[in-house]
């Protein structure tokens, strides 16, 4: 027990934690209850299965905080980023992946590693001893969730995470829709035409909003409340905040020219992003929803170009649980009341695939270093990974703690730089330059076992 690191959960965080710890010479057991115990959101038994979007978001490591996080994970030999790069799909300046081959690749790499094994028994209680990382993500099982709540003395916080629908490409009317990335962004023709665009005029947009607001929605169970994460709001919730909200959010028409009518300016545009390498599936960008299935097909077929759409997957909604980490975890991601247990991933209050994997990377390295008798400090808060761990372990306000994507607002300012929008490009470049130097220095503290 004491010579083995046990990781509960085989999602992005658990998979990355296992990989990093094993490369540091530690034996690892991943406890993943799937497929023996299923969840309603997962479809396979693969590790690192993507259940929502297939995008890792921006890959710009000079002007974007999540792109910087990509860079840091690549420099650390991250498994998640390596497999994402190997199964990349055209997506303009974003990193989108072919979800099933990606998960299969992660699973294969972990199962092939001589220091990693996988157990499919469900963990239902907090362990009394040993070395543990809990990375069960947003769908922590009821029994383990109750055990965590009992230990922390407070109910775990929760919000609801909604899943966007996926459309079969051959059901899209390409006499109406066209292929173009916003502002033609990308270095190749495939990148510049990575998104499928469906235009709406003002009357069509207004009718769509009316239908969206009137549609039947999923009811919450008694005692549940909808505390949404603002980065993953259902479209109907956005519409309830104002009729123009969607037109200035996921349906904004800027940077796009209708290939069928170049002189006609769309009032709103619905974008779809490729969801697999074959290009047979496209997900509707930003269209996570809690509408009932019947309502979804009716409302989404109001979108010009999708009037005959067939859906490979409709949207859904599920409860997403996370800790009040600023009060419960120390700077090393350890549970203060049981320091032999670390938490990682989305359950700590970070949001997004990449952020979850980054917290797994950090937890795996910290745990392995401690087990080897060479404790490791957390990375500087000037790095993307360090900014995230600083935020969740005390930098955030505990009373209003909510899931957080990585962003430059979490970074310490660089002195002497111009503020405001006009100084943003230079400011962001200064953030990323500083972060890369500091991350490289932090990585030098550990020597990875090549086996």
TrEMBL record:
It catalyses: uridine(54) in tRNA + (6R)-5,10-methylene-5,6,7,8-tetrahydrofolate + NADH + H(+) = 5-methyluridine(54) in tRNA + (6S)-5,6,7,8-tetrahydrofolate + NAD(+); uridine(54) in tRNA + (6R)-5,10-methylene-5,6,7,8-tetrahydrofolate + NADPH + H(+) = 5-methyluridine(54) in tRNA + (6S)-5,6,7,8-tetrahydrofolate + NADP(+). FAD binds at residues 9-14. It holds the Pfam family GIDA. GO terms for biological process: tRNA methylation; tRNA wobble uridine modification. Gene3D superfamilies: FAD/NAD(P)-binding domain. GO terms for cellular component: cytosol. Keywords: Cytoplasm, FAD, Flavoprotein, Methyltransferase, NAD, NADP, Transferase, tRNA processing. Residues 5-374 form the MnmG N-terminal domain. Coiled coil: none annotated. Its cofactor is FAD. It is found in: Cytoplasm. One of its GO terms (molecular function) is flavin adenine dinucleotide binding. It comes from the Bacteria. SUPFAM superfamilies: FAD/NAD(P)-binding domain (SSF51905). Its EC number is 2.1.1.74. Belongs to the MnmG family. TrmFO subfamily. HAMAP family: TrmFO. Catalyzes the folate-dependent formation of 5-methyl-uridine at position 54 (M-5-U54) in all tRNAs. This is Methylenetetrahydrofolate--tRNA-(uracil-5-)-methyltransferase TrmFO. It comes from Pseudooceanicola lipolyticus. The gene is trmFO.
């Amino acid at each position: 027990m004491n010579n083995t690191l046990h990781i509960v959960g085989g999602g992005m965080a658990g998979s990355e934690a296992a990989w990093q710890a094993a490369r540091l010479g530690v034996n690892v057991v991943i406890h993943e209850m799937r497929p023996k115990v299923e969840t309603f959101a997962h479809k396979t038994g693969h590790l690192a299965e993507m259940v929502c979007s297939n995008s890792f978001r921006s890959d710009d490591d000079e002007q974007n905080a999540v792109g910087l996080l990509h860079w840091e994970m690549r420099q650390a030999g991250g498994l998640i980023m390596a497999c994402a790069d190997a199964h990349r799909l055209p997506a303009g300046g974003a990193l989108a992946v072919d979800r099933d081959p990606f998960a299969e690749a992660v699973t294969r790499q972990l199962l092939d590693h001589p220091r990693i094994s996988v157990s499919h028994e469900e963990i239902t209680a907090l362990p009394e001893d040993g070395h543990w990382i809990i990375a069960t993500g947003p769908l922590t099982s009821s029994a383990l969730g109750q055990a965590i709540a009992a230990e922390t003395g407070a109910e775990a916080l929760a919000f609801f995470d909604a899943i966007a629908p996926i459309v079969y490409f051959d059901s899209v009317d390409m006499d109406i829709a066209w292929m173009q990335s916003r502002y033609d962004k990308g270095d190749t023709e495939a990148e510049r035409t990575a998104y499928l665009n469906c235009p709406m005029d003002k009357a069509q947009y207004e009718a769509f909003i009316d239908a969206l607001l009137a549609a039947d929605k999923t009811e919450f169970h008694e005692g549940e409340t909808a505390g949404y994460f603002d980065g993953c709001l259902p479209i109907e919730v956005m519409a309830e905040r104002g009729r123009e909200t969607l037109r200035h959010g996921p349906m904004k028409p800027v940077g796009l020219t209708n290939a069928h009518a170049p002189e006609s300016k769309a009032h709103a545009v619905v974008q779809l992003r490729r969801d697999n390498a074959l290009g047979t599936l496209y997900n509707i960008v930003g269209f996570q929803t809690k509408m009932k299935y019947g309502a979804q097909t009716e409302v989404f077929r109001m979108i010009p170009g999708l009037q005959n759409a067939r859906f490979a997957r409709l949207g859904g909604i599920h409860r997403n649980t996370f800790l009040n980490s600023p009060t419960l975890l120390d700077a090393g991601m350890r549970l203060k009341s049981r320091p032999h247990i670390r938490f990682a991933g989305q359950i700590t209050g970070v949001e997004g695939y990449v952020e979850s994997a980054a917290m797994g990377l950090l937890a795996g390295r910290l745990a392995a270093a401690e087990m080897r008798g060479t404790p490791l400090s957390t990375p500087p808060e000037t790095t993307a990974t360090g900014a995230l761990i600083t935020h969740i372990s005390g930098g955030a306000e505990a009373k209003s703690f909510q899931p957080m994507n990585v962003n430059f607002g979490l970074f310490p300012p660089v002195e002497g730089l111009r503020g405001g929008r006009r100084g943003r490009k230079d400011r962001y470049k200064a953030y990323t330059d500083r972060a890369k130097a500091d991350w490289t220095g932090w990585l030098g503290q550990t020597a990875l076992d090549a086996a």
